[in-house]
Amino acid sequence: MSKSYRVAILGATGAVGTELLELLENRDFPIADLKLLASERSVGKTLKFKGENILIEPVSDRSFENIDIVLASAGGGTSKTWAGIAVAKGAVVIDNSSAFRMNPEVPLIVPEVNPQAAAHHKGIIANPNCTTILMALAVWPLHKIKPVKRIVAATYQSASGAGAKAMEEVKTQTSAILQGQLPVAQVLPYPLAFNLFPHNSPMTDLGYCEEEMKMVNETRKIFGSQEIRITATCVRVPVLRAHSEAINLEFETPFNPDEAREILSHAPGVKLVEDWQANHFPMPMEASGQDEVLVGRIRQDISHPCGLELWLCGDQIRKGAALNAVQIAELLVEKNLLKLATAYA
Ligand code: A2P
Asked: Which class would CATH give 5-127+322-335?
């Protein structure tokens, strides 16, 4: 008889939390018991799982008793408060926040890239930043063939990266503007509808915002290569869901675009979208709701003999967050890595 597991979703009512719920159901993850946790604000609400209404519970010390896997997506502060407690109670925490990503004791995993890192977990596994996951899926298959020396990325990030409330805010702002009213910004710092602005994460001393530094540091950790030079400019755009990225890669020697295309057409988690005649390439609207990262416009960088340009779009909530987390949970189950937990028949 196959095993099944007791799972808790921390942040179940959020944009990523509700996606986690849908993925666990659609991918038929072996669940013995499911606990849905959120803040006091959600007490009394229910969410549906496999046709059953499950009551949302406020998170407390006792929430993690008899839980094998915690899928956490309730922000860094909440993860810092509860992850240690959950691990002490015997659960493995797959954390979607940035709280533990750069901790050397915590594996940072994209299952298509570095699944082997899961073997070294000590109770917490970090799910990387969304833009980093999407970029890693497209760059890793090429990097494996020919190590990449330098990555220059520019991102076009949707409202979904700032959560469900930010998505609602863009809709409200759009209708306000269309009715001749002034848009109100409460979740994001400025109106995003009919606008764009540099990513709203805190600024670092280097003049890069934290989102940009996540792309630099997390990619190096996931690839296991501190030598790769990476620079990024992250921008919030008025797209509801799915991020886009323009990626410039520099290799030691020229990388033939047709060879790159061939490699990416077989790469796990990647779907090639390239119709040069119709000028049809990845778009956030077509990437929304899809598991794969859409990649296209693969071309020689005319400014550098060893440069390659590509364009990608990926669903930030799905592969950029919830799907990657569920894939990590599947990996733990498949490789029998829930050491701290008691899986039962
Ligand atoms: P709630 O809906 O009760 O506020 P998003 O990223 O879409 O904004 O979602 C954030 C998720 O994290 C929501 O499920 C939210 O619950 C949850 N959350 C936020 N703060 C806390 C907290 N202090 N304790 C538990 N859950 C929290």
From this structure: alpha beta
Euclidean distance between CA atoms 122 and 326, whole angstroms: 18
Contact 251, 159 (CB under 8 A): no
Task: With a cut of 90, say whether residue 341 has pLDDT above it.
Answer: no
CA-closest residue to ligand 1 atom 14? 11
Name the residue of 78, 98, 167, 200 to mutate for ligand 1: max ligand atoms within 8 A of Cβ: 78
Task: Tell me the C-alpha distance between 332 and 298, whole Å.
Answer: 34
What are 171-181's pLDDT values in tens digits?
999 999 999 99
Tokens of 203: 């600024």
CATH of domain 132-158+196-314: 3.30.360.10
Tell whether the model's pLDDT for residue 342 goes beyond 60.
no
Residue 1 has pLDDT above 60, yes or no: no
Please give the number of the atom of ligand 1 that sits closest to the Cα of 13.
14
List every span in the chain annotated with CATH 3.30.360.10: 132-158+196-314
- In the chain, where does the domain assigned CATH 3.40.50.720 lie? 5-127+322-335
